[in-house]
Design brief:
By secondary structure, the protein is of the alpha/beta class. Helix content is 41%, strand content 13%.
C-alpha cells in the first residue's frame, strides 16, 4: 500500500450514542406494556385510514432517519391497526393472543440473533429441551424426533414428506416420483385443513392423490368409508400411503376417532399423520386428554404453539415417531456444513438435517421462557377455561330464540347464526354476513365465518386467554341487536 493511499472509514450499524438508544428502548418497553395493559379500551379491529396507507407507499429510505421519528411513525401508522388477536373479543380463525412475557422473550432472542440450524451453542440445546417438554406435555413418545417450524402448515408438510418417503416403496429422495409405477394416495376427511392438500401438491403427488372421505353428523371422518376407499384404490393399482386424522377441525373443532384411525393404519400398514394445529394442545389437560385418545400413536403430529399456547407468532411443531425416517427424508451433505466432534460445529445432530430450513431463528426461546415463567399448570387451566367458555356461549345461543347453533361444540369452536323470523337461506346468509362485517368494523368483536352444511355461520374459535364470560354475553347481545336491525331494514 502506497503512502498516498487514503483509507476509507470503516462503518458498522451500532449506535453512535448508546445512551440515547437506551432511552428510546426504555420508552418503547413502557409504551408496549401500557398498550397491552389497556387493550380493552380500544377497538378489536379498525380499518387503516388513507393517511396511514399513504405512508406505506413511501420510497425506500436512502439516508438514516432519527430513530425517535421512526418510532413515532410506528406509533401513529402501525401500532393502532393490528389484526386484533391481542384483544379479549378476538375469535377469528384460530389466532393466539400472545403474552407480555413472550414479548420480552422475543427481545432476548433478537439480541442474541442465533441461527438454530445446528452447532454447539445454547439455541440448539434450548430447542431440544423444548421438544422434550412438548412430548411430555402431550403424552407423545420420548424417543420421537421433532422440529420447531413456522406453524401448522409447515408442520403438516414435514410430517407428510416423511410419510411419503417412508411408505412409497422406492427411494423417492434419489429416484424421484417418476420412477414409481403406482400412484401414491393420501386420505383425510372432507373437513381437513387446506394446508394438507397444499402439502400433498407440493410433495409432487398432486391434489388428485387426496381422497376426501365423508364425515358423520359430528363432522368426524367415517372410518367405514375410509376402509372402502383404501380397498378400492388398492384394487385399481394405487398405493395408499397415509391417513390424516384431525385433532380439532378448523370449522367446528371436531375430533376424529384417532384410536380407530391408529388401529386401521396399523392393520393396513399406513402412516397416520395427525393435524392437531390447535386441538392437540387440549391433551396438556388431564381432563381433556381422553378426547384425543389415540393421538399419541400417530406416526407424525403437527401442532401450533402460537394458537392455544399463546406464544408470539410464529412457532409450530412437528413430531415424528420414527427419527430415522425423519432424518432420511431431509438429511444432506455439504463440505461447508460438515459437523465436527469439537468446536462451534460440534454439538448434537443438526436440526437442518430434519427440515427444509438451514436458516432457522431462535423460536425455542419464547417457548422456553413462557413455560418457565408461567408453568404448564396455567396453560392447562386456560385450555379448560376456553372450552368452558365455548360451552357457555353455546348455552347463550341455545337460550336465545333468535339465534341458532349450527354444530356441536366438542372443544372451543362455536358456529351459530342469527335466525330471527327469517326462513329463506339466501336472506339468512346476507343478514349474517352483514352482522359479521358490522361486528368487525365497529370494533366490538371479531369472530370469523365459515359454512356448515351449506349454511353461513358466524364462527367463534376461542384460544384467547384474555376472554371473559361477559365478552361472550356482549357478542350475543350485539348479534341479536344487529340481526333485528338489519332484518327489519329495507
Amino acid at each position: 500500500m502506497s503512502a498516498t493511499t487514503t483509507l476509507k472509514l470503516e462503518q458498522d450499524l451500532d449506535p453512535q450514542d448508546w445512551s440515547r438508544l437506551r432511552t428510546l428502548g426504555h420508552r418503547m418497553m413502557d409504551d408496549m406494556f401500557a398498550y397491552l395493559e389497556s387493550i380493552r379500551e380500544r377497538p378489536v379491529w379498525q380499518p387503516i385510514p388513507a393517511s396511514a396507507l399513504e405512508t406505506f407507499a413511501e420510497p425506500i429510505p436512502r439516508h438514516p432517519q432519527n430513530p425517535e421519528s421512526v418510532y413515532e411513525q410506528f406509533r401513529s401508522t402501525i401500532l393502532p391497526f393490528p389484526t386484533g388477536n391481542i384483544h379479549p373479543r378476538f375469535w377469528s380463525w384460530v389466532s393466539g393472543t400472545g403474552t407480555a412475557g413472550g414479548m420480552l422473550a422475543e427481545l432476548l432472542s433478537g439480541a442474541m440473533n442465533s441461527s438454530a440450524h445446528g452447532g454447539d451453542h445454547a439455541a440448539v440445546y434450548v430447542e431440544r429441551q423444548v421438544l422434550s417438554w412438548l412430548k411430555q406435555a402431550l403424552g407423545y413418545p420420548s424417543e420421537a424426533s421433532g422440529l420447531l417450524v413456522s406453524g401448522g402448515s409447515m408442520a403438516n408438510f414435514v410430517g407428510l414428506a416423511v410419510a411419503r418417503n417412508a411408505k412409497a416403496g422406492w427411494n423417492i429422495k434419489t429416484e424421484g416420483l417418476g420412477n414409481g409405477s403406482r400412484p401414491l394416495t393420501v386420505y383425510c376427511s372432507s373437513e381437513t385443513h387446506s394446508s394438507v392438500v397444499r402439502a400433498v401438491e407440493l410433495l409432487g403427488l398432486g391434489s388428485k392423490a387426496v381422497r376426501r372421505i365423508e364425515v358423520d353428523g359430528d363432522f368426524r371422518i367415517r372410518v367405514d368409508h375410509l376402509r372402502r376407499a383404501v380397498a378400492r384404490d388398492r384394487e385399481r393399482g394405487d398405493r395408499p400411503i397415509s391417513v390424516v386424522g384431525n385433532a380439532g377441525t378448523v370449522n367446528t373443532g371436531a375430533i376424529d376417532d384417532l384410536a380407530g384411525l391408529a388401529d386401521f393404519c396399523r392393520e393396513q400398514s399406513l402412516w397416520l399423520h395427525v393435524d392437531g394445529a390447535f386441538g392437540a394442545i387440549a391433551a396438556i389437560s388431564p381432563k381433556l386428554r381422553p378426547l384425543l385418545g389415540g393421538m399419541e400413536r400417530a406416526d407424525s403430529l403437527a401442532f401450533d404453539l402460537h394458537k392455544w399456547m399463546s406464544m408470539p407468532y410464529d412457532v409450530g411443531c412437528a413430531l415424528i415417531r420414527h427419527p430415522q425416517h425423519h432424518h432420511d427424508t431431509f438429511a444432506y451433505g455439504a463440505a461447508y456444513l460438515t459437523a465436527q466432534t469439537r468446536g462451534l460445529s460440534g454439538g448434537p445432530e443438526w436440526f437442518s438435517q430434519y427440515g427444509l430450513e438451514l436458516s432457522r431463528g431462535f423460536r425455542a426461546l419464547k417457548v422456553w421462557f413462557s413455560l418457565k415463567a408461567y408453568g404448564l399448570k396455567i396453560y392447562q387451566d386456560l385450555v379448560e377455561q376456553n372450552v368452558a367458555q365455548a360451552q357457555y356461549l353455546g348455552e347463550l345461543v341455545t337460550n336465545e330464540r333468535r339465534l341458532e347453533l349450527l354444530a356441536a361444540i366438542p372443544l372451543n369452536v362455536v358456529c351459530f347464526r342469527y335466525r330471527g323470523s327469517l326462513d329463506d337461506e339466501a336472506t339468512l346468509k346476507e343478514v349474517n354476513q352483514e352482522i359479521l362485517l358490522r361486528l368487525q368494523e365497529s370494533g366490538v368483536a371479531a369472530p370469523s365465518a365459515t359454512v356448515i352444511g351449506g349454511r353461513f355461520a358466524i364462527r367463534v374459535a376461542n384460544v384467547n386467554h384474555r376472554s371473559r364470560r361477559q365478552d361472550f354475553e356482549v357478542l350475543v347481545r350485539e348479534v341479536v341487536r344487529l340481526g333485528d336491525q338489519i332484518s327489519a331494514g329495507p
